[in-house]
Amino acid sequence: MEPISLATVTTYSLKDRSSKVETNKFALPHIKGDGLSVFLNKLPSILKGKDFPALIEQIVTAYHVKKPVIFGMGAHVIKCGLSPIIIDLMKRGVVTTISLNGAGVIHDFEVSFAGTTSEDVGPALSDGSFGMARETAEEINGAIIAGVARGWGIGRSVGERICILQAPYRDYSILASAFDMKIPVTVHVAIGTDIIHQHPSASGAAIGEASMIDFRLLANQIKDMGNGGVFVNIGSSVILPEVFLKALNVCRNLGHVVKDFTTANMDMVNHYRPLTNVVTRPVLTGGHGYCLIGHHELMVPLLAAGIIERMGV
Questions:
Q1: Domain boundaries, the chain
Q2: Which among 62, 59, 100 is positioned nearest to 78, based on CA atoms?
Q3: Which of these, 152, 281, 290, lies nearest to 214 by C-alpha position?
Q4: Distance of alpha carbon 98 from its chain centroid, rounded?
Q5: Which CATH architecture has domain 49-311?
Q6: Whole-model pTM?
Q7: Which Gene3D superfamilies match (predicted)?
Q8: Which residues of the chain have pLDDT under 70?
């Protein structure tokens, strides 16, 4: 068998071809003294270099038109030392709702109470002492039990408890700051996933009921996201993407028109559920979905700084 001949293949001029990359979309070099706004404007208008400024623009627009901007966050965001960044966005009126998983509450409380968090799991697991810090469990579980009796979810209950305790590092607490500012914090728990569930002070009934209250509270925020709201999932690979999708579905089932909004997933690696349940499926009826991969300790401060620069205040 002979090799096929290429002598008569059809060609065309490169100048006549439609191409996706053009030099007018290329990056521009940094110049000493350039501010952050200039830096962002010099990013290549290609792939994530286009998406990142677009997400900033969507968040700032939502702020100006008073639409919800909801940050759903895994616990690693707090462990990366980013609470002051999130609290600042809350104080500026940008972030209107926070959603956390159960571990996020634990790390937030420990930071506020002791100024430290994140134990070394390996050695502690070997002798059964992992997660057995007394104050963490007793205060959080006690707050949940007391709060649910008042019809409160986990976020509000623990935020109030941190304030009542006058925790020495409460200025670093997202929960306490939100409680003071009357910003909703919803907490979504899978029973058995958190260290406080190992303690005798844990009440499955209270935890479940309080988490259900927070689910409904989140849905009440999502119902107003249509026509300009934003949901950003930062570092939750399963729980919050699933909760967001179900809460959105409840809103639509109840007759609320929730479309033409923006979603984004920011994480250190790509995961199936955030990509489908946050970035893709929710905006099929209209809107924008972005996926931005990078380390939280770099990406979140950069996002916040870009928002502040774009706001101009």
A1: 49-311
A2: 100
A3: 152
A4: 8
A5: 3-Layer(aba) Sandwich (3.40)
A6: 0.94
A7: Deoxyhypusine synthase
A8: 313
